[in-house]
Amino acid sequence: MSILQVKQLKKIYTSRLGGNQVEALSDVSFSIDSGDYVAIMGESGSGKTTLLNILAALDKPTNGEVILDNQNIEQIPEKEISSFRRNNLGFVFQDFNLLDNFSLKDNIFLPLVLSGKKHNEMEKRIRPIAQKLGIQPLLDKYPYEVSGGQMQRAAVARALISNPKLILADEPTGALDSKSTDKLLEIFREINEEGQTILMVTHSIHAASKAKRVLFIKDGYVFHELYKENITDEVMFEKITNTLSILAVGDEIHV
């Protein structure tokens, strides 16, 4: 069952004076099933960030539709869009986006506080998540008191605590060392196996090789996609590397 449908998405940015136009997305269409784990790759300027912003309802397309759980996000009234994000989407960013003057626990609670949840409900939700992510002893610490990997795990906890239909991850391993990267990717694998749907934008071939499917964006459209199916991470890594090489020179891909 498709939880996310992207239909003929197009985005054109126009300068203030209307003299210049830049087409960031040309004609992007794909769908993501519930429980899928999809990575999006492409060179800088290919349209990945624009696509992610539209999926997050932070930007509006020029044409096309984004339908999340049978709801067209373009049709959501502006006054309800923040609530829609909190209730349906979880976000994991490269730079963690934690508030320094909040403890890790308070950072994780933030989406629930904004949704008006009671404290006992928040405590009930955080316990199993913190235990799974190995951050229970750190909850009273502040972001500047823990490592980058620990901050990112707190960010994942914040994304998970609202039980989102979809997690959007923007370069989630970009600021992590190799050990913390592997830990985070293992967490993504575990929560995906438990049914969490994940869409991750990444430049990392290592990170993308863990996904079930990889979409390659070039010049504002989906250039190619790979399905992992039953192959190993190592074979998927090689397939992604080969595809990126072809993408860089602009040749046709023959499957």
Descriptive key words:
255 residues, 6-stranded mixed sheet, 4-stranded antiparallel sheet, Rossmann fold, 8 helices, globular, alpha/beta
Structure description:
- The protein has a six-stranded mixed β-sheet with strand order 6-7-8-3-9-10, with helices on both faces. The protein has a four-stranded antiparallel β-sheet with strand order 2-1-4-5, with helices on one face.
- Helix 5 (148-160) packs parallel to helix 6 (178-193).
- It has one domain (2-249): P-loop containing nucleotide triphosphate hydrolases (Rossmann fold, 3-Layer(aba) Sandwich).
- The chain contains eight helices and ten strands.
- It is an alpha/beta fold.
SSE map:
Layout: E1 2-14, E2 21-33, E3 37-41, H1 48-55, E4 63-68, E5 71-72, H2 81-88, E6 89-93, H3 104-114, H4 119-133, H5 148-160, E7 166-170, H6 178-193, E8 198-201, H7 205-208, E9 213-218, E10 221-227, H8 233-249
Parallel strand pairs: 3-8, 3-9, 6-7, 7-8
Antiparallel strand pairs: 1-2, 1-4, 4-5, 9-10
Helix pairs in contact: 3-5, 4-5, 5-6
The best one-word shape is: globular
CATH superfamily: P-loop containing nucleotide triphosphate hydrolases
Please bin the fraction of helical residues.
Answer: 25-40%
Q: How confident overall, as mean pLDDT? A: 91
Rounded to the nearest angstrom, the radius of gyration is: 19 Å
Number of domains: 1
How far is the N terminus from the C terminus? 26 Å
| Helix and strand pattern | EEEHEEHEHHHEHEHEEH
Number of contiguous helices: 8
Structural class: alpha/beta
The CATH architecture = 3-Layer(aba) Sandwich
How many strands in all? 10
CATH topology: Rossmann fold
How would a crystallographer describe the biggest sheet?
6 strands, mixed
Q: How is the largest sheet built, in terms of strand order?
A: 6-7-8-3-9-10
Residue share in β-strands: 25-35%
In the CATH hierarchy, what is the class?
Alpha Beta
Uncertain runs are: none
Oligomer: single chain
